[in-house]
């Protein structure tokens, strides 16, 4: 099959009445899914042309998935937009991408003959959005073929299959959630989706729907584990957990193991532009601090600023070559993401050791120079978050007439903490020049819609504090 969602119709023919998609109280059979997708594709054929962009502002996750698959079936490009965006952001996205059609409700029409083209692997089918440095999101474009290559990794390396029941614990505007839900349907597995992330409700849904695979962000997994352990109700049916790479405390790993005692935890590193890059699972031989080895079909090189390939152990830009790479940006983008002879970097830096394990240093755009030394914000954050009392940390560099850059840190502590303890912790593992000059304790820690630290808002908060002192 050359396009995303194509196997759904064969699944509907073989098991028409079996449940394929669950969203809250809504249960849709494979036959109902296939019919809805065909109806949506027929409506698109009436109003748009192949290759046209269709902006989907649909809050209900099941309807959003069916509309996206209808776009794929009709060889249109689905723009997955957040129905909750403020009007200013929504207007900026529409003006920046110029979609042919904007859809805010279910995509249907009475079934009837339509002249639907067969999508090709190189055809774009999906535009997603990720945060941009100016506050306006970057719009990245993906082809059918790039996601099909990613699906092959999910099935071949992670071992997912059509008998699974895959639970997605949050909104589908997050690219990880969307990928997990669509990949489940593509391989013939039931997808269980939720509009809101409410840990107690998600845990109850896992049990009720007999889910055995969980896609989650690190924050979601930690909150689900805490909720399950708090009431003493582990979830033994979850056999596989796929989570984007994170800096884990050992107590968090124990909490996950207690909450999901039978689960294999797959931690992977990737980006919206690259899909999967490297991965490892709990209990393997991956050294501490590494995000694992390159996944099948993926090549990694570390290059210097001049494009020269660096030897093992040297830190430079991470370049990737695979069939999973994105086509480019529809809107936004920055100088950090660039191509070189079929290889792509998104500006992440790191090194590969002699055994092929990849270690991340941080984003190049988050690197600053203090007293002539290159400092990655992430290396400071990793040290601070190793303190069990610190649930989140972020480092920033502000202009300083003496050092060039003055390093400060924002910290979210779960109990009263003092700067002296954190400074001693940093001095234990960092060169003195990399140790923050000041620590700011933040209770109301800002998060993005995807559950990650909102670095833009946090930096503004810390800058205001610095200016006031």
UniProtKB/TrEMBL annotation:
GO terms for molecular function: medium-chain fatty acid-CoA ligase activity. Signal peptide: none annotated. Keywords: Ligase. PANTHER family: ACYL-COA SYNTHETASE, MEDIUM-CHAIN ACYL-COA LIGASE ACSF2, MITOCHONDRIAL. Pfam families: AMP-binding, AMP-binding_C. The lineage of its organism: Bacteria, Pseudomonadati, Pseudomonadota, Alphaproteobacteria, Hyphomicrobiales. GO terms for biological process: fatty acid metabolic process. This is AMP-binding protein. Belongs to the ATP-dependent AMP-binding enzyme family. SUPFAM superfamilies: Acetyl-CoA synthetase-like (SSF56801). It comes from the Bacteria. It comes from Stappia albiluteola. InterPro entries: AMP-bd_C, AMP-bd_C_sf, AMP-binding_CS, AMP-dep_synth/lig_dom, ANL_N_sf. Residues 379-452 form the AMP-binding enzyme C-terminal domain. Residues 9-104, 113-329 form the AMP-dependent synthetase/ligase domain.
